[in-house]
Amino acid sequence: MLAHNLVTISSSIVDALKKHELFPEVLDEFTPQGLLTISYGKDLDVLLGNQLKVKDTQTLPKIQLTLDIGDDELVSTFSALDYFTLVVTDPDAPSRTDKKWSEYCHYIKTNIKLTQSDGAKNSDFLSAQLDLNEGPDYLKYEGPGPPPKTGKHRYCFFLFKQKAEINPPPLTGRPNWGLGKPATGVREWSTKYGLEPIAANFFYAQNETQ
Asked: Partner of 101 for a Cys bridge, out of 22, 66, 70, 175, CB 3.0 to 4.6 A?
């Protein structure tokens, strides 16, 4: 039953990513291998397209990944030696219809190790906290800053599994992920380093002046 529930949730995640056009606008469609739980504080969780206030999202949130360990085939592809990359990107910069700064890169953390959560050892799920304080950030977190009168922006979190430890050169800028071409970003960057997307979540935020 638990495995079935996770499959159902995975389908719901895909449906949300399609509905809000993150598939295929930001990344090609993939099947989530777990749940990415994101919290900016009490009652400030990221819930696949809910709206949060800009002022409440200026510090790096707490993030947890939950895998279904009832799926032996899935579990066998993960180990304590794995590295992961987390990114936050805005495909609506400066607006949904004007892509000159899109995507705007808000955060990149590479070579993340998963730390098993308390009480998870005897569970039917593997819950792991993303240790975002260990080691330097590839690109420090910058909270949402949507310009006035540009409507709602989608702030997208994607977790990737790495094939090995990576040390890419710094981005040349946050707009367009330094690639210099509008409407480009995480797809091109992750492909370059052979990253496999395994989980996603997102929220909306907008400037109070509309």
From this structure: 175
* C-alpha distance from residue 173 to each of 89, 101, 109, 141, 196 (Å): 13, 10, 16, 14, 23
pLDDT digits (tens, 9 = 90+) for 130-169: 989 888 999 999 999 999 999 999 999 999 999 999 999 9
HSE of 14, CA atoms in CB hemisphere, 13 A: 15
Asked, for residue 115, whether it belongs to a domain, the answer is yes
CA angle at residue 203 from 44 to 163, to 5 degrees?
105
Report pTM.
0.92
Alpha helices in 26-181 (DSSP H): 72-75
What's 23's domain CATH number?
3.90.280.10
Do the domain assignments include residue 210? no
| Domain region containing 94 | 2-205
Report the C-alpha dihedral over residues 91, 54, 94, 167, rounded to 10 degrees.
Answer: -50
**For 55, how many CA atoms within 13 A lie in the half-sphere containing its CB?**
1
**% the chain with pLDDT above 90:** 75
Is 127 contained in some domain?
yes
Do residues 26 and 89 lie in contact, with contact meaning Cβ atoms separated by under 8 Å?
Answer: yes
151 exposure class (CB count in 10 Å sphere: 0-12, 13-18, 19+): middle
